[in-house]
Amino acid sequence: MIWFSTAEKLNDPFEFSFHLSEMHINGFPIDEVSLETAIRAMKQMGVLPFSEINDNILMWSHYSESHTGFCIEFERTDSNELGNWDYCMPVLYDDNLPTIKPIELGDKKVVSKILTTKSKLWSYEREWRILVNKGNQIHDLPGNITGIVFGCRMLFAKRREIARILGGAVTYMHAVKAL
């Protein structure tokens, strides 16, 4: 089992932001209540982020409590959720927020574009995302765990506990400071 967060819990306050291209639908003003309802539903969606890399110092500093945490490596195959491009999508890094029409907020592809677009400033993360309808809860693992990378400041007792829980079918690595 693994935790899926929501947009409000992510560290970028501009996550899930977009521009509306127009303020009318068929000549009628946008129903702000419907718009707010659609935005609220989108912000309640669950997000599980992944990265193609496990050795970026900035990411270890941001996401692992200053190198005291760990990185989980998963197997990606055509037969699991990580290999399903409709389910696990690469993040698009762009200088501009997505621009959409209000009527498009119900379109799954448009919502996915909003949820997988970030500023180019974050491109060093090389992120992918799995999206689910409800966040702030636990969901099944998207694939088999193949490895764990322990942060360079992770306590030995915590490393030993993780190894005890996961057993020997996983590769364990410990990040160390270069001299």
Gap from first CA to last CA:
37 Å
Mean pLDDT: 90
Total separate domains: 1
Biggest β-sheet: strands ordered side by side in the sheet: 5-11-7
The shape is elongated
Low-confidence stretches: none
Percent helix, as a range, is: 10-25%
Please report the total strand number as a whole number. 14
Structure classification: alpha/beta
Q: Tell me the number of helical segments per DSSP (H or I, 4 or more residues long).
A: 4
Computed Rg: 19 Å
Describe the biggest sheet?
3 strands, antiparallel
What proportion strand?
A: 25-35%
Secondary-structure element sequence?
A: EEEEHEHEEEEHEEEEHE
Key structural traits:
179 residues; elongated; 21% helix; alpha/beta
Task: Describe what you observe in this structure.
The chain has 179 residues and is α/β, with parallel strands linked by helices. It has one domain. It is built from 4 helices and 14 strands. It has helices at 32-43, 57-63, 108-115, 156-166, and strands at 2-4, 19-20, 24-25, 28-29, 46-51, 70-74, 88-90, 92-94, 99-100, 117-119, 127-132, 137-139, 145-150, 171-174. The strands form 6 sheets. Strands 5-11-7 form a 3-stranded antiparallel sheet, with no helix packed on it. A 3-stranded mixed sheet has the order 6-13-14, with no helix packed on it. Strand 3 (24-25) and strand 4 form a beta hairpin. It is elongated, with a radius of gyration of 19 Å.
